[in-house]
Amino acid sequence: MTISIPTAVLIIVLGLVGIGIYALLTTRHLIKVIVALQLLVKGAMLALVLAGHLTGQDDLGQSLAITVIIADTIVAVIGMALAVQVRRVVGTLDLRSLTSLRR
Amino acid sequence: MAELLILLTIGLPWLGALFCWAAGDRHPRLQHGLAVAFSLAAGIAALLLIPFGKDQVLITLSVGGAFGNFTFSPDGLGVFLAAVATVIGSLAVIFSVDYMRSEDQLGRYYAFVLFFIGAMVGLVLTTNLLLMFAFWEITALTSYALISFHNDDLKAVAGGIKALIITQFGGLGLLIGALVLFANTGSYDILTIIANPGILPAGALAWMAFGCLAAGAAKSAQFPFQTWLPDAMEAPTPVSALIHAATMVNAGVYLLARFFPAFEGVPGWREAVMAVGMLSALLAAVMAIFATDLKRVLAYSTVSQLGYMVYAVGAGGIFAAQFHLLSHSVFKALLFLGAGAVIHSVGTRDMRQMGGLGKNMPFVRLVFVIGALALAGLPVLNGFWSKELILEAGLAHGNPLWMLFVMLVVSGLTAFYSFRMVWLVFYGQPRAELHAHDAGPAMKVALAPLAIGTLTTWLLAGSFSRLLSESLPAHQIAAHSTGEILLEVLTAPITLIALLVIALGLVCWWQRDRLAGVKRALTGLQITATNSFGFEAVNRAVVLGAQNSAEKLRSTQTGVLGWNVAYLVIALIGVLAILLLGVGLP
């Protein structure tokens, strides 16, 4: 049984997105949330490149991926900065302690 | 040339809005001047645009595949309503110079008024349904902001939010119509669907037709959405005259008239439109008879007259509907601005405290009486001709006669409440110590053209019908000269009947003391009418239900990240499932 390259990439995409969502659903640690978000977005990025390749628009998919990389870096940086502040103000990185909506 | 004029008519008010806002509230004189200058310039541009009226797309803004091209076309309906919006808009702005003299935050006021005028022009000139929806919502937003202009007054804020919610509900209908059109044809072009409604499957066309009916009814304050307009009367009176009498509420009638050739074949649509118009006209006229707040009487009469127009569209009388729209815009703006002059002078809106004001404000009484006579539909004034044309349209095309009978009764009620209003405000003995003074100079400048318009716009019937018939081929409007139209009205038997009914309404008001027994018998009706026939109770129940269910759903808002992600994933799976199953849109 041979697996074509697009199929392999698709499997990797699904793996990354699946791990990301699973981690987001289960983790309560803010740093881990940011890591999970990174994994998720990397999967989405790979999916963009793959979609560009499959529709014959390699350049479009890749330039979109680069755009996502830039946006995603900013997300990571700001997330980390927020984590530092949360640690300083709240004293813990546990997400449950950040919940203020519940009555 | 025409392209430039279209851009100017939309762009000038918007530029003016920016300038008025940027001028800063410390320079009220500059703000007044800028607003008057820009609105007048827009009015002139719109009037110059009228001779260019034809059904041809002149401006095309390409914005990519998802939205289709943003197109503008100066056809008869569009240029006519653009002229009404900008000319009455500029008169309302001139009136505001006196009316809003001592108010703070003029920048916010004028910016929203001018923003509204530009959006209204865009709404009627565009031929892209999605762009029309965008303009539609901008007018709703500015209407909300201006109703709640006195944002320290709870009633004003509540009225604004009510108007926003109810018109949004109708706006959804328009959005559904636009999306159905796009899903089936891949474009938002209005002209295509009007010229050839067959490109949509019958089911989809029905969705679109009734979506647009809901949108039009909500915007024009028609049954069952009529409750927002009376509460919108908390707005400054020039705003009521411009937005809630002369322009924005006409957008619903415009929408129905615009799409009439596409929707008239939809089973039940025309009957539904006529029924909506008839019920609105009847219920609102009864409520106007019992109302005691001057502006609310005018608001109810607006709903009632808009009901006439909607009825006429359903009856197939597009020309009659649009002609009455023109007449109504002029005389109702006159009535509202006249009422504004009275309220500004005496400081109350309660007609029970007024009375005998005519002696101190003869000019306002003169123009107000002209407006009221037109509203009652008495001969020679513009309201007479257009209302008779509507009744004639109700007689044609095999429309149900009992609906026409109801409309005739309503015209009698209209005469009755018009005279009651005039009498309570300007004649009789003063009922309270009110210090009335006549209108200021800017108010007179705004009132005089409207009074002259009320006396003369019926002379435009011929050129108006020619404009519509030449530029709206799909609507099949026959062009007649003014003389032909007037002769047709005068010789129609329905005119005589209507005049008799109107006279009966007048006699009822004249002999009101002898009819005291009848009045007592109608006490039950009075109580029901002042309670808006139970519609307010429905509104309250809806609001309460929404609040209660929100309180119950509150437990789902945990604020825990894991749950939020879970909801996202579940929604995503739902969307994917719908796509995989290929559930078709209507």
What does this molecule look like?
The complex is a heterodimer of chains A (103) and B (586). Chain A is mainly alpha-helical and 103 residues long. Chain A has helices at 5-26, 30-54, 58-90. The radius of gyration of chain A is 17 Å and the shape is elongated. The relative contact order of chain A is 0.13. Chain B has two domains: 2-530, no CATH class; 541-581. Chain B has helices spanning 2-23, 28-49, 76-99, 106-125, 129-147, 154-185, 190-195, 202-219, 228-231, 237-246, 250-258, 260-263, 269-290, 294-314, 318-346, 362-376, 382-395, 401-426, 441-456, 461-471, 482-491, 493-510, 516-521, 523-530, 535-553, 561-581; strands at residues 59-61, 70-72. In chain B, a hairpin with an 8-residue loop joins strand 1 and strand 2. Chain B is globular. The mean pLDDT of chain B is 86.
Topology, pairings included?
The complex is a heterodimer of chains A (103) and B (586).
Chain A: H1 5-26, H2 30-54, H3 58-90
Helix pairs in contact in A: 1-2, 2-3
Chain B: H1 2-23, H2 28-49, E1 59-61, E2 70-72, H3 76-99, H4 106-125, H5 129-147, H6 154-185, H7 190-195, H8 202-219, H9 228-231, H10 237-246, H11 250-258, H12 260-263, H13 269-290, H14 294-314, H15 318-346, H16 362-376, H17 382-395, H18 401-426, H19 441-456, H20 461-471, H21 482-491, H22 493-510, H23 516-521, H24 523-530, H25 535-553, H26 561-581
Antiparallel strand pairs in B: 1-2
Helix pairs in contact in B: 1-2, 1-4, 2-3, 2-4, 3-4, 3-10, 3-15, 3-19, 4-5, 5-6, 6-8, 8-11, 10-15, 11-14, 11-15, 13-14, 13-18, 14-15, 14-17, 14-18, 15-16, 15-17, 15-19, 16-18, 16-19, 18-22
Short description:
With 103 residues, chain A is an all-alpha fold.
Which class of chain A in CATH terms? Mainly Alpha
Query: Biggest protein-protein interface?
Result: A-B, 15 and 10 residues
Shape descriptor of chain A reads elongated
Helix content of chain A: over 70%
* Average of the residue pLDDT scores of chain B: 86
Major sheet details of chain A: none
Order of helices and strands of chain A: HHH
Task: Name the structural class of chain A.
Answer: mainly alpha
Elements of chain B, N to C (H/E): HHEEHHHHHHHHHHHHHHHHHHHHHHHH
Instruction: Give the radius of gyration of chain B.
Output: 24 Å
Arithmetic mean pLDDT of chain A? 88
Strand order of the largest sheet of chain B: 1-2
**What helical percentage do the residues of chain B reach?**
over 70%
